[in-house]
Amino acid sequence: MGVGGHAWRGRDSWRQGNGYGTILTTGGSRNTHSITTRANTSHVPPRHCLPRGHHNGVPDGGAADLPPAAVCNFVCHDKCLKTVVSPCSSVAPTLVKTPVAHCWSEPIHVRRRHCNVCRKKLDDTLALKCEVCEYFVHLDCEDFVVPNCKDCAIFILDKTLPQVVQQHHWREGNLPANSKCVVDKKTCWTAECLAGLRCEWCGYTVHASCASKVPQACTFGLLEPIMLPPSAVSIPRTEVPMEAIIGVQNRRKDTLSGDSRSISEEFTSEGYKMRECEEPAMRERSRDRDEKDEEVVKVFDGNSSLQRRMFRLVTVSRAASVAEFLTAALRAFHLPQEVTSTFLTDAYSAEETELTDPLPVSKLTRREGKRPAVFLRYREKGNDEGHIRVYPSRLGGTVGVEHTVLPVTSLTCVTDVISLALKKFDLPDANPEDYHLVEVMLDKGVSERVMEHGEKPWELLKVVARDSVRQMEMMRFYLQLAKDPHGSSIALFVGNLPPNLSQRQYDNILTDILAGYKYSSFGPIYYEYGSMVITYDDPDLAVRAFYTLRESCYDDKNLLVMLLPNVQPQLIPEGVQPLLVFVNVKSGGCQGLELIHSFRKLLNPYQVFDLDNGGPLPGLYVFRKVKSYKILVCGGDGTIGWVLQCLDNVGQDSECQHPACAIVPLGTGNDLARVLRWGPGYNGGEDPINLLKDVIEAEDIRLDRWTVVFHVDEKVEDKPTQTNSTAGSTSEDNTQIFVMNNYFGIGIEAELCLDFHNAREENPNKFNSRLHNKSVYVKMGLRKMVSRKLCKDLHKEIRLEVDGKPVELPPLEGVIILNILSWGSGANPWGPEKDDQFNKPNHWDGHLEVVGVTGIVHLGQIQSGLRSAIRIAQGGHIRIKLNSELPVQVDGEPWNQAPGEVVVLKSALKATMLKKTSKSKLKRRNTEPSMAGGEVPRLEVRPDPASSHPL
Q: Comparing C-alpha atoms, which of 463, 450, 373, 442 is closest to residue 418?
């Protein structure tokens, strides 16, 4: 299991396209290259020189001196070897100190991007992209992916804040257009090939040759004031993948999740089923090979690959020797194994005999309709000793080496390896019984297993090699403390249970489902949502419970379960207010899905939550110990109300009871977002980084909130009231209580809102754009003009009191009570300022505005800005008597309300919002109220080290 760089070769086995290779580090002796003589490279066809990061993507010196790599086909000028930073893909996975699996998307078509493995363009081919980092890969190249995704949870128990140094996470190529190097200020991107480096945390872009000149410590760039540092996040060691922790929706089909080496057994010239349009080209290629006397052979790298029909194709000369054949097979699997440690056997031979010279290709067994096939085998016989790599698994600052290579034999057991590794890591006084040796497999992801002390690592490797030689090469060993330094407490969020049950009922339900996997503690419980948190002290038990709950149902509903990360607030730097991001992916068509992908790349994925997975509660629980943080809500007014309501429920149990909330408007109305200057609606054209910069610069203001109490008359109490809102509660005397943030309506406006709501409930897929939603509103309004007037003479059906005084109502069909001066997608029913008996309204003055609407035409005129509503009253306590059943709506949630009484009064609940600062008035006098006793000082954003910083 050796380590090496590229093995450079001559022209003989060129194949089309720039070869395999990927960036991992920025230099060092471990990435040095052995090259062929110049005589062997004199006839290399013109190719790109990839390592140097030229601004135009094409080097000036021609391509006559390009030695290609024998394993990965990486191409380089002789004169450029000193600047190569991309290790050979055969060894790149072994150079990762702490492997982190990628979170793959479903297969997609991506343009103007290059594969980080084979370095070819992704145009018109199926590809995968990591949902967390800028890693792109062909579906066929997935086998050779380097598991070096952003490490977003690097908490180490014995490190204090002054000891934490965040490293840059460099990714090669696929840079944003017009990126400039922060060192020499020159363009460092190209659309021609993989060139240049970008830090996934701070966004710095540099030439590959300039990366060593950048300070090693990463400060997160412009996003430092809102970044949740990975050193402050801990994930207990479990086998649960990152996708399940951060809630990535992985929709890849089962047929696509397997090994990309699975190729049709049908005999075609390239191993894939031919399309009709490809047949002439395929036949031509087959004739070319026949003329060159070549053969295409399937190569299996072990027993499991044969069972799963997963192989790779190699093209070899029929006159090739065993050594040439073996080299081609190793290259197909990107293996740096020595030729002497492996051999080939005939896969279709009864005895599976080893291939020998001369003419091994001609000796292969042929089966009708199938290509000849060989096994790539590891030579076990007489090979009773070797070397293994052992890595320290975050043992703290006392270990100064990245890994050690230990000699082992067939008799060496895990206990021996632990003792020897402790000495190599300069921990001679440590007790070996306090440590585990963990087997880590890097093939197609990252999986790990704690080994028993009596196991023999070298014998284990040889057993693995029988199933897959590549898996043997991708296996490594980690030394880690037996006691999890992150703590053994693991929290699982469980949802989709019936709401408003008792604690005992929830306990009984979970106990029945989990059987023997009993949790250590239970709570908090979010009764209104049928959700709760359960905690385990045993990680293995927690994992079993996680998968059991994920496959369970209750009342024909699949349970929701999430494993939650732990945030360590003591490692959040002073002055940093981490941003907790909530995204409603169902809002605004596909914009919510695009935003959540962008924010996961720009920020720490553990601070970005999909509201489709348990709503706001999991994120609020994770941040419960953070003393000061901000919230960004991406959704409509209903989503904002949902988050504020959940804050009300958990505020008393949190260190930060009133975090300030910013908005990215994705809904249809977005009235609160308009008032707070976040715009009428996100259209996808604004760079997400600018949205985050606006959040950093926004100012805290107060938002009045109101309690709306509905009490049904006794004579109609036996008829239940149907409501659509989940923002209210019902008491035993049939009184319903809601919290209002924006407005409350009775009459024609609420009736129109109810019709729209019912239409959307019947066909939700049709209501996926703001333009369509508004057109539906207009059509419904036109129908109301000719239909029966349900709310005609509304002024005779209600009685209004404001601050204890009765108010005479003019002839009306609707009444709207406003907390903010935006209604119906941006209209202002109160109208412009004028000299009358009313004060200038705002959303923090403790007063509501009451206006009236005379009909559907009047509504249309208000929304178009031609007229204002009829000003009726201002006050802080409103009482309305309903004499008949009427349509009502609270913050856009409509229903038909039975006769009774409605009271609107100031709520004891508080809300702190973030108001976007005007670009032209950044230094204007602050005329809005400060947050008494809890005002957060303005954060100074550190200037960039170079004006070309992409952020």
A: 450
What is the C-alpha to C-alpha distance for residues 534 and 932, in angstroms, rounded to an integer? 36
pLDDT digits over 403-437, tens only? Answer: 889 999 999 999 999 999 998 888 888 888 889 99
Contact between 819 and 858 under an 8 Å Cβ cutoff? The reply is: no
Handedness of CA 301, 306, 307, 309 (dihedral sign): positive
Q: Are strands 630-635 and 660-665 parallel, antiparallel or unpaired?
A: parallel
Both structure tokens of 941: 């954003």
Query: CB atoms < 10 A from the CB of 943, how many?
Result: 9
- Amino acid 63: pLDDT: 36
Q: Are 642 and 615 in contact (CB under 8 A)?
A: yes
Side by side, which strands form the sheet with 490-495?
521-526, 531-536, 490-495, 560-564
* pLDDT, tens digit, 9 for 90 and up, residues 38-93: 333 333 333 444 443 333 333 333 333 444 444 565 677 777 777 677 777 777 87
For residues 305 and 599, give the distance between their C-alpha atoms in angstroms, rounded to a whole number: 38
Is the model's pLDDT at 222 over the cut of 50?
A: yes
Please name the amino acid found at residue 552: S
pLDDT above 90 (res 392) = no
Q: What does the DSSP assignment read for 64-128?
A: TT-PBBTTT--B--GGGGGG-----TTTGGGG-SS-B---B---EE--S-B-TTT--B-TTSEEE
Cα dihedral across residues 336, 339, 342, 343: positive or negative: positive
Radius of gyration of the chain (CA): 33
- Rounded Cα–Cα distance for residues 519 and 527 (Å): 19
Helix (H) or strand (E) holding 536: strand 531-536
Give the CA angle between residues 146, 147, 151 to the nearest 5°: 135
| β-sheet bridge partners, residue 225 | none
Helix (H, G, I), strand (E, B) or coil at 336: coil
Average pLDDT over residues 201-211: 90
What single string gives the DSSP state of each residue in 282-333? HHHHHHHHHHHTEEEEEEE-SHHHHHTTB-EEEEEETT--HHHHHHHHHHHT
pLDDT value, residue 589: 63
Least confident of 46-60, 614-628, 715-729: 46-60
Q: Which residues have C-beta within 8 Å of that of residue 456, sequence separation ≥ 6?
A: 410, 411, 412, 413, 414
Taking residues 314-338, report their average pLDDT: 86
Instruction: Give dist(CA 596, CA 603) in Å, integer.
Output: 10
Instruction: Return the SS3 of 22.
Output: coil
Cα distances (Å, whole numbers) of residue 394 to 449, 482, 490: 16, 12, 19
| Cα 725 to Cα 698: distance, rounded to the nearest angstrom | 30
Angle of the 770-786 helix axis to the 748-762 helix axis, nearest 10: 130
- Structure letter (DSSP) for residue 275: P
From the number of C-beta atoms within 10 Å of its C-beta (0-12, 13-18, 19+), residue 170 rates as: buried
Query: Which residue in 824, 833, 835, 818 sits closest to 873, CA to CA?
Result: 818
Give the three-class secondary structure for 385: strand
Please determine, for residue 722, whether its predicted confidence score (pLDDT) is greater than 50. yes
| Residue 504 main-chain phi, psi, to 5 deg | -65, -40
> Which pLDDT tens digit goes with each residue over 743-760?
999 988 888 888 776 777
How far apart CA 235 and CA 244 sit, in angstroms, is 12
Number of residues assigned to the chain: 951
Query: From CA 71, how far away is CA 5, in angstroms rounded?
Result: 10
- Say what the pTM is: 0.83
Question: Distances in Å between the alpha carbon of 395 and those of 435, 441, 606, 805, 833?
Answer: 10, 20, 23, 71, 66
Mean of pLDDT over the chain? 79
Per the DSSP assignment, residues forming a β-bridge with 373 are 298
pLDDT at 271 over 70: no
3-state secondary structure of 873: strand
Say how many C-beta atoms besides its own lie within 10 A of residue 774's C-beta: 15
